[in-house]
Amino acid sequence: MKKYLLKRILYLIIVFFVVSLMMYSIYNLIPSDPALVQMEPLRKTLKPDEWTRQYLELRSQLGLDQPLLIRYARWMGFMRDVDGTFSGLLQGNFGYSVSYKRPVVDIIGTPMQNTIILNFVSTILTLAITIPLGIYCAVHARSAGDSAIQAATVVGYSLPIFLISILFIYVFAVLLRWFPTGGAKTPGSTYTGTREFLDRMYYLALPVLVLVFAGLAGMTRTVRAAMMDTLSQDYIRTARAKGLREKVVIYSHAWRNALLPVSTSIMGWMISVFTGGSLVIENTFSLNGTGRLYWSGLNTTDYELVLAMQMFYTLVSLVGVLLTDLSYTLVDPRVRIDK
Amino acid sequence: MKKYLALLLALAMIFALCACGSTAAPATDAPKSEAPAAEAPKTEDAPKAEEAPAKPVKEDVIIGTSTEPNGDWAYGAFTSSINATDQDVITLTDDCVTVTSNEGGDYVINESVVKSYERSEDEDGNVTYTFEINEGLVFNNGDPITAENFLAWTLFVISPAGKEMGTVSAAYNQIPGGPDYKNGDVNYLAGIRLLGDYSFSFSMLATGYDGVNYLPYYYELANFGARAVNLDYWFGPGWHVADDGEGAYLVNDNGLEFTKDNVADYVTAAQYATSDRVTAGPYNLVNFDKAATEVTLEINPNYCGDFQGQKPAIKKIVIVRAEDETILDTIATGGIELYSGIADGAQVNALIDMIEGGEIDSDYCRYDRAGYGYFAFGCDLGPAQWKEFRQAVAMCLDRNEFANTFCAGWGGVVHGPYCTAFTMYKDSKEFLANNLNTYDYNPEGAAELLKSIGFVYNADGTDYVDGSGLVRYKEVTKEEAENYGDFCVEVDGKLLMSATLNWASSEGNSVSDLLSTMLANGEAAKQAGIELKQNIMSFPELLNYMYRQDAYGLGGDYSVPTYNMFNLATGWNSGAYDFSFEFTTNEDYILEGYNTTHCYDEELDRLSMEMVYGVEPGDYDTYLDMWQQFVVRYNDLLPQVPLYANIYVSVFPNSIVDYQEGPFWGFSRAILYADYAA
Predict the structure, then answer these.
(1) What is the per-residue DSSP string for B188-211?
(2) Which of B33, B290, B321 sits opposite A110 (nearest CB)?
(3) Which residues of chain B neighbour A121 with C-beta distances below 8 Å?
(4) Are B317 and B283 in contact (CB under 8 A)?
(5) Which residue of A has its CA nearest to B26?
(6) Is the ipTM here above 0.90?
(7) Which residue in B271, B227, B236 sits closest to B257, CA to CA?
(8) A124 contacts on B by Cβ (under 8 Å)
(9) Which of B63, B314, B325 should one mutate to test binding to chain A, selecting the residue with the greatest count of A CBs within 10 A?
(10) Which residues of chain A are within 8 Å of residue B320 when distances are taken between CB atoms?
(11) Under a CB-based contact definition with an 8 Å cutoff, are residues B326 and A169 in contact?
(12) Which of A111-125, A312-326, B214-228, B546-560 comes out lowest in average pLDDT?
C-alpha cells in the first residue's frame, strides 16, 4: 500500500510539473502583453516618452523581457525572481493579478468559498435525489415510471445550462416570484446568524435548483446501470430464492455491490464540482465564484490569475483521481492496490 | 457504507429544508407583484410581509452595476485604469476636492471646499495655484480638514516610498522639484507648499524636466485639483505635512521616516477597507461585501456639499452587480431599482414598455452617450493610404441605417470625433452642418472617387467596367505596395493593388457582425468595387496589430503593418477634449504606439496639439476655432469613420424624484440631487 501510494504520488508530481509547463507555455503563447494591458489607459495621462519609460520598466518588473523558460522557472519558484528572491508557486506565491492589483491568493479566497458552498449544496441535493431515483429505475426497469423518470431527467441533461437558467429565472423569479433573479443576499441587508444563513440559502436556491436539474440525468443513469447490473447477478437470484424480503435484497445485497462504480463516480464528481466554479451559473446569477473569476481573468488577460486557478484545478483533479482509486478499497474489500 | 449513505442523505435533507425554509415566506406571504424580494424588511428579526405595516418608508435605493466592484479605494494611485464602480464609490465617498467637474463635464472650482484661489504665472510660463480652503470642513469621523490633508496624497504618490509600493505618477516631471523628491534626493517637494492651516499652493512647470511643454494647457485646472485624505487613516498615527520654506514634506511626530516599511500596512488596509473608511464625501462606506460583491453606503452628515452646495437626501444606497442577460427581469422583480446607462436599444424598448405598461413602478431619463463607435483605418497601408479610398468606403455604408439598426432606434450618427454633449458641438452646430461631409450612402459616388485615384483596372490589367461587381485594382509603386503584397498582383510589368481592406475584427462583437452584413457583404461595396476581408481575432490581438509596438523590437510579427481597418469605440469621462499625440507625426512617438491610425498629416497633428497646448485656459473662442478646424480636417482626411452614438437610458424608481443623469453626470453625481417622492 505504502509503495503504491509513493509511486502514485511520484507520478502525480511529474504530471503536475509537465502540465504546469504546458499551461504556462500555452498562456504565454496567447498574443497579449500584460504590461501593455496595464499601461494602455495611461497613454492619455502620460506624455509619450514617460509612457514608454514606464512601460519598459513594467515589462522588466514583470520579467517579460526574459525568455519563456526563465519566466517559467521564476513563476514556478525554481529560479530567483527579479527581486532576487525565490517566490514562485512552490514557495506558495500564486502570482500577482494585474487586473486586481493584488496577490492572487488574496483574491481567490472569497470566490472559492462561494463556489464550494454552491456546489456542495447542489451536489448533496443531486445525490439525495438521484440515488433513490436510480435505484427505483433499476428495480422497476422498463416500467412506465422508469421511462417517465428517464425522459424527465434527460431534459436537464440535454438543454444547455444557460437556457435552463434563463427558463428557471423566468418561471420561478419573474412569473412566480418565489426566488430572486440573482445575487448572493438581500441587497443592503445586515442579517446575522441564522437569518443571514437562511437569506444566503434563499438566494442560492435558484442556482442550486438549476444545477440539480441539470445534474439529474447523469447520476440517475449511473446508479440505474450499476443497480441493474448487480440485480442480474446470480447471488441476487439466490437471495430472492431463499425468500429474503425484496427490500433486504435491494438495499443489503444489491445496493452495496452497486456502490463500487457509483462511489468512484461520486468521489471524482464531487471533487471536481466542489472547486470548479460554474461559469454560466455564476455569471447568470451574479454569484462571485471561481468560474466567474476565471472568466474575468481570461477577459482581462490576467494570466497569472488564470494560471494559478488552472494549476489549482490540476492539483485537485490529480489528487481526486488518486483518492478515487484509493476509495475502491474502502468500498470493496476484494480490491487490493498493493499488488 | 450504509452509514455514510445515511449521513449523506441526512445532510441533503438539512440543506433542502434550509433552502426551502427560507423561500417559504416570500413564496407564500409576500404579495407577488408588490413586495419583491429586494423590498423585504432589512432588520434582523424582520416580520413577515403580512405582519408588516402597509408600506414602510423605503429609505434605500438599490443600484445595479455591470462592473463588479473590486474594492480598491486608492484613487487609482496603483493602477492604470480604475474600475468604473470603484470610481463611482470614490465619487460618492470622497468628494472633498478642490477641482471637480460640472454637469457639462467642464472643470470647475469646488466652492464648498475652496474659499478663494489665485492663479499666477511667471515669466517662463510656470503656473501656480494658491488655494485657501474653508474652515470647519471635517471628515466623516469628525477629524478637521486642513491644508495638509490636500497635500498628503500627492506627496505620497510621488515619494520614493510610494514608488516602491507601486504608485503610478504622471505629474512628477511637471512639478518643480519632482524628480529630486521622487528619487529621494530631497525629502520635500518644492512645487507644493503648505502656506498655513488653510492655505496651500501647487506649481507646475511650463516645460517639464523631460523637456515636454506642459503649459499652456487649455484644461490646466484639471491638473491642479487636490483631494483631502486623512493622514492618520492612510499612513498611520502621527503623520503631518510640514513646510520649512523649501517645499512640503511628510513628517512624523514619533520620528518615523516616510518609508514603505513604515506606511505600507496602513496604506493597504485603507486601500482595501471594507467598512469604516475615513472620508469626506456625501456618503460613508458602511460595508463592502466581497462575497456578494455589494457596496452599501449611508449618508454622511458631515458632508459639506458638492460644488453647488448640494447635499444628498437619499439616506442609503446599495450597489449590486447586475447581469446584462437578466437585467430587465431583475428590474421587474425589484432586485434592482436604479440602473444607469442602458445602451442596448432592444432592452431600452422593453424597459419602456414595462414602465408605460405599469409593470414596474419606475421612470427613466435619457441622454446622449459621451462617445461613439467607429472603424479606424490604418492610413499607411494598402488602399487606405489614399483619403479618397477611405471616403469611398464611408460612402458604401448607410451609417444612419447602421446606427438605427444597431441601436434599435436609440442612437444616431456623428460626423467627426465628438459627441453631441460637448459645449463645442452645441456652439458649432451650424458650422458643422455647413462644413462637414456627411458621406451619405452613395455607391456611385464611391466608384467615382475610386476612379479618381486610379482604381480603374481589373485583376488582369484590363479596364474595369462599372457595375461588374469585381474588385477594382490600381497601378501602384513598390513603395505604395509595401507590406501589402498579398493584395497586389504583377501584370505585364505593372504592379496592381486591389481595393481590398484587410479588416481586423474582434470576436463576439455585434458591431462587427453588422458591419460584415451591411458593409463587407453589402451590395454597395461590391457595386463600387471594394472588398473587405474580415479577420476575426481576440481584442488583445487586435490591439497588438493596431499599436504595432514597433519600438524596441517588442512587436514581433505585430510590428509588420498587416491590417488597415479596425472597429472600436471611444468615450469621454469629462468634457476635456484632448486629442494631443493621437495624430502625431513624430517618428519616435509613432514607433512607441502613438497615432494608431497612422494618418500622417502635419496640419491634423498641429491642430490636435495646439488646440490644448497652444491655447490659454479660458480662451474659449480661440479653442473653439481650433476645435472646428480640427474636426473639419479630420472629417476630410477620415482616419476613422464614426458609426453610431448611442442614446443611453437610465431607469430609477418612482419613489425618488429629481433624478437626471447626463453624458458626464453619472448616478454617483445625479443621486445627490434626488429626493424621496412626497
Answers:
(1) SBTTEEEEETTEEEEEE-SB-TTS
(2) B290
(3) 15, 19
(4) yes
(5) A178
(6) no
(7) B236
(8) 8, 11-12, 15
(9) B325
(10) 183, 187, 286
(11) yes
(12) B546-560
Pick the CATH number of B84-271 from 3.40.50.720, 3.40.50.970, 3.90.76.10, 3.30.70.270: 3.90.76.10
Please give the pLDDT value at position B56. Answer: 54
**Which residue of B9, B18, B167, B360 to mutate against A (max A Cβ within 10 Å)?**
B18
Chain B: closest CA distance from residue A13 (Å): 31
Q: Report whether CATH 3.40.190.10 matches the domain B283-368+647-676.
A: yes
Main-chain dihedrals φ then ψ at residue B326, nearest 5 degrees: -120, 15
What is the per-residue pLDDT across A182-225, written as a single tens digit (0 to 9) for each? 999 999 888 999 999 999 999 999 999 999 998 888 889 989 99
Assign B437 to helix, strand or coil. coil
CB-CB contact of B501 with B531 (8 Å): yes
**Strand pairing class (B488-491; B411-412):** unpaired
Of A178, A182, A202, the CB nearest to B330: A182
- Domain with residues B371-451+499-646, CATH architecture: Roll (3.10)
Determine the pLDDT at residue B9.
41
Domain assignment of residue A316, yes or no: no
Instruction: Write out chain A residues lying below 8 Å of B581, CB-based.
Output: 43, 47-48
Is the pLDDT at B626 greater than 80, yes or no? yes
Question: Using CA atoms, how far apart are residues B319 and B49, in angstroms rounded to an integer?
Answer: 24
Closest CA to B455 of B529, B347, B403: B529
Tell me the percentage of chain A whose pLDDT exceeds 90: 31
Beta bridge partners of B203: B128
Alpha-carbon distances, residue B417 vs A294, B436, B511, B603, B645 (angstroms): 36, 12, 18, 16, 11
Instruction: For the beta carbon of residue B621, count every other beta carbon within 10 angstroms.
Output: 10
Look up the CATH number of the domain holding residue A139.
1.10.3720.10
For the record, the C-alpha cell of B136 comes out as: 470647519
Query: Could you give the CA distance from residue B638 to residue B454 in angstroms, rounded to a whole number?
Result: 19
Alpha-carbon gap, residue B651 to B364, rounded angstroms: 4
| Mean pLDDT value across chain A | 86
Instruction: Give residue A128's domain range.
Output: 109-301
Bridge partners of B569, per DSSP, are: B373
What is the Cα B364 distance to its own chain's centre?
Answer: 23
Q: How are beta strands B248-252 and B316-321 bridged, if at all?
A: unpaired
Residue A336 lies in a domain: no
**Is A166 inside any structural domain?**
yes
Half-sphere exposure of residue A10: CA atoms within 13 angstroms, side-chain side: 6
> Could you give the CA distance from residue A8 to residue A230 in angstroms, rounded to a whole number?
30
Domain count, chain A: 1
Tell me the domain boundaries of chain B: 84-271, 283-368+647-676, 371-451+499-646
**The three three-digit cell numbers of residue B158, written as one number:** 510621488
CA B80 to CA A41: how far, in whole Å?
Answer: 6
Reported confidence tier of residue A66, pLDDT bands at 50, 70, 90: confident
Q: How large is the angle between the packed helices A2-29 and A303-331, nearest 10 degrees? A: 160
